[in-house]
Design a protein that fits this description.
This protein is α/β, with parallel strands linked by helices. The protein has one domain: Rossmann fold, CATH 3.40.50. 32% of the residues lie in helices and 18% in strands. A seven-stranded mixed β-sheet has the order 3-2-1-4-5-7-6, with helices on both faces. The longest helix is centred in the N-terminal third of the chain and has 16 residues. It is globular, with a radius of gyration of 17 Å. Bound molecules: S-adenosylmethionine. The site of S-adenosylmethionine has 21 residues, from helix 2 and strand 2.
Length: 201
């Protein structure tokens, strides 16, 4: 499957072991991940947050119940909410969420927003679990980028070492622990520069 689907599958795989009831998806964009997550029986509340309110308005139709949802009722009713907002500011409606997901979000944040992000997530929301994915720039040797980033809106792309040190700084400050994972493997017979997308959990 394409890389973005591999990312969604990885997050679903991780969440299925943790079974959080309430999940925030920061930078939910077109709500594609929420559209998959809403099929999981363990979830009872999903909140999608994105800076781009127009994108949320255009995408919300995807999350309407399907005809089959009325035929085969879930065990637990599910509530989905979409909010326009930034990860740099705490929204009190995000209290008591068990997990926060940020798929390919942090590399789009300006320095000030990136600086404020850990406080919002790890101090204000304080979820049990956080899953963050971002491009692994070590892997860029496999692309012909000529020093540029993979996407025009990326503010940075971190090596595995840079991502690790950012995560470990957060863990020390807010008393969390972290493990790393990834999706997207290199072509065989090329040296390993890690995964295409790196994950911190
Ligand atoms: N998570 C999505 C997915 O995997 O399908 C893709 C994320 S897209 C690459 C980055 C998203 O982050 C955009 O929709 C953008 O509007 C949003 N974004 C950028 N800055 C943000 C901020 N400060 N707070 C919340 N969302 C933000």
């Amino acid at each position: 499957p394409p890389l973005y689907i591999q990312r969604y599958n990885k997050v679903l795989e991780i969440l299925s072991t943790l079974k959080p009831e309430k999940v925030v998806d920061f930078g939910c964009a077109e709500c594609k991940f929420i559209n998959l997550l809403r099929r999981e029986e363990y979830v009872i509340e999903i909140c999608g947050v994105d800076l781009d309110g127009n994108l949320l308005s255009e995408s919300s139709f995807k999350l309407e119940p399907l005809a089959s949802d009325f035929l085969y009722l879930r065990h637990n009713p599910l509530t989905i909410r979409l909010y326009q907002g930034s990860v740099s500011e705490f929204d009190t409606r995000l209290r008591n969420f068990d997990a926060v997901v940020c798929i390919e979000l942090i590399e789009h944040l300006l320095p000030k927003t990136l600086k404020d992000f850990p406080k919002t997530v790890f101090s204000c929301i304080q979820p049990k679990h956080v899953i963050i994915s971002t491009p692994n720039s070590d892997f860029n040797v496999h692309f012909n980028l000529n020093g540029s980033f993979r996407h025009w809106d990326h503010k940075f792309e971190w090596t595995r070492e840079q991502f690790k040190s950012w995560c470990e700084g957060i863990c020390t400050k807010y008393h969390y622990s972290v493990v790393f994972d990834g999706v997207g493997t290199a072509p065989e017979n090329r040296p390993s520069f890690g995964h295409c997308s790196q994950f911190a959990i």
